[in-house]
Amino acid sequence: MIEMVSRGEQAPCMTSRSSWSLGKLALWASLVPFLLLMRPYGGLFQDARIYIGRGVADLDPGGVGRDMMFAHDEQSRFSIMRAVVRSLLAVLTPAEVSMLLALAGILLWLVAAAALARSLARGRAAWAAVVCVLVLPAQYGAFGVFSYAEAIATPRIFAEAAVLGGLAALLSGHRLRGLMLLGAAMGFHPLMALPGLGVAALLLVRDDRRWLIPLGAACATILAAAALRLPLFDRLLVPMDTAWLTILRRTEYLFPSRWPAAVLSTFAYRLAAVAVAGSLSAPRVGAFLWGTAGVAVLGTLASLLFGDIVPSVLITQLQLWRWLWLLGLVGNASMALAAIGLWRRGPAGHFTLSLLALTFLSSAAPSLSMVLAAATVAWHVADLRGASPILSRRVVVVAASAAVAVAIADLWCDGAALSLLVRSAEAQGGPITWAQISSVGLQTIPLVAAAVASALIPWRMVPSSARFAAATALATASVAGILLWDSRTNERLSIEHRDGAAELRTLIGDTPGEILWIDEQSEAWFFAARAAFFNAVQGGPILFSRELAVQWADRAATLLRLHLVRPEDVAPWADPSRRSDELVVRPAAVRAFCADPSHPAAVVAPGEQLAAAPPGWTVNLWRPPAPTRRFFVDGAGLYWRTIGVFTVIRCLPSEAVQSPAPHA
């Protein structure tokens, strides 16, 4: 049985300070370089653009604030992140705010994750659990869109930290502290806090059934508010209209019915790990682990039924499938706890451990992974009940050998993928960042194996040479973590520092209005200080605002008709590949775009496309200080597209534009 903290035992966080030896301090401090290496900072990108952009828009209402995403913002009012970002932007640049929040967020997250691990297990078993949380796949949902512990400036990371800290406090008997932290999580990101509240409710009811009274009253109040059509709650009983739903269906990760089968593999190994670890734990810890799995399954099913098949506006917006984030974290921690506990159970446990390892390693074959997960749980239950047959040593060795062989094959595939990345970059002059290297996953299996082994081998049996090697590796990892954490490319640094921005703004001119930056990744906001006519980032919050969804879809249709965007820019999940060639802009398309009733100010097109400007229009070339390099995955391989020059075309006043839109 794993050394767990039961209800009657003293929690690790309550032990005396004298018990903290130098070795223990070094052990837990080693998690910081692990964190920095496994969660590199890529800059002001992904969803950080939404939240930092919101702050920039608040400070520039006549410029970026006119962007349709911020004009129809229905999301930020549910988070204190907006106020935090706006306050920081008063003294720091957007790039500095982004980095500060990302670093603060992941450090707080690590402290909370360590606290939760120490409430589940003791000593090196808890440490190994955190290592597995850091190095095993962190994605949840589909298409790799979301991961826990993201080093980006969003409220998600702070909500996750508060949830983990709150659950750790509840497990350690500090009920008030736990509920306060869960309340803080709601303040940052209600959607991320909900699974924590669900697990907390299960723990409270388990301790005292009288908690069913206030919890039942809260559910009844929500239903009554929906029936009375009170603001926000009225969305619970309102079906999502066809037009809005059709637009949202392009964002396939929102709807579980559209997820690829590969999602089931991740689901399978995490559920199997939780089932095994829960059975080897103290009752209270087991209840927590199983409760986390139950909450995640319930949320996903509710999202499938009432946010997908028969979609309610509120249930769709709540994205209850995102409750999977907590299962992802707890499931990865359970891989370490299960491995440690199973190893100590002898041959039968070793056989179960081999099955669990094969479940994880067979992620490329969802059907096989699910069968192995079921076999893992079934065999383990039979073993616990004494109903499993006695295995010969040969059977155990064969199962372990199979797991080792598959692990070696997996490492070989990861090595081949890394080699392809390096060779493609060298051939095309593309930059390789530590974030790209670490995302290949070559380090996952060795680090998990080392962490579990370190928890199983008594420290006194470790020779001094191995201790010295471990200390050297820790020092090296610490230096590497500091040097590699900031994984921004020269292009990203140039954009965030706004090098050359003044020249670009001069070329765009003083005419107010939005600009169309073709293939942009929020450069209009943070570089040109302009509202964007259209970009992919604006398509994220369309779930929360019907007005934004309709306007964004209308503009997407216009630009598709004019061949100013690609279909995969509008519906990226339908075809995850990207074309490496540039869009060729035509004068008729520019003329038709500039005639839009919103009175756009300019078009910024990649490459030297002076012929794209209609006769007599102002057109200039702009060269950024650092060339833009975009990474693409096509069916034929990996590509970097380098853009060293942009074409800036000023729109004429709309009354001067006469030409009709070209036909597709």
What does this structure look like?
- This protein has 28 helices and 8 strands.
- Helix 7 (123-135) crosses helix 16, helix 8 runs antiparallel to helix 9 and helix 13 runs antiparallel to helix 14.
- The strands form 3 sheets. The chain has a 4-stranded mixed beta sheet with strand order 3-4-8-5, covered by helices on one side. A two-stranded antiparallel sheet has the order 1-2. Strands 6-7 form a two-stranded antiparallel sheet.
- It has helices at residues 22-29, 31-38, 48-59, 68-71, 81-89, 94-120, 123-135, 155-171, 175-188, 190-207, 212-227, 242-248, 262-279, 283-309, 313-318, 324-343, 347-361, 366-384, 393-428, 434-439, 444-456, 464-484, 490-496, 501-508, 523-526, 546-561, 567-570, 587-594, and strands at residues 139-140, 146-147, 515-517, 602-606, 619-622, 628-634, 637-643, 646-650.
- The longest helix has 36 residues, at 393-428.
- The protein folds into 2 domains: 38-71 and 81-456, no CATH class; 498-656, no CATH class.
- With 664 residues, it is mostly helical.
At a glance:
By secondary structure, the chain is mainly alpha-helical.
Rg, alpha carbons:
27 Å
Please report which band the strand proportion falls in: under 5%, 5-15%, 15-25%, 25-35%, 35-45% or over 45%: 5-15%
Helix content: 55-70%
Major sheet details: 4 strands, mixed
Low-confidence stretches: 3-19, 659-664
Count up the domains: 2
SS summary, helix count: 28
Based on DSSP secondary structure assignment, what is the total number of beta strands? Answer: 8
Large-scale geometry: globular
The N- to C-terminal Cα distance equals 67 Å
Q: Report the mean per-residue pLDDT as an integer.
A: 89
The oligomerization state is single chain
SS content category: mainly alpha
Trace the largest sheet across and list its strands.
Answer: 3-4-8-5
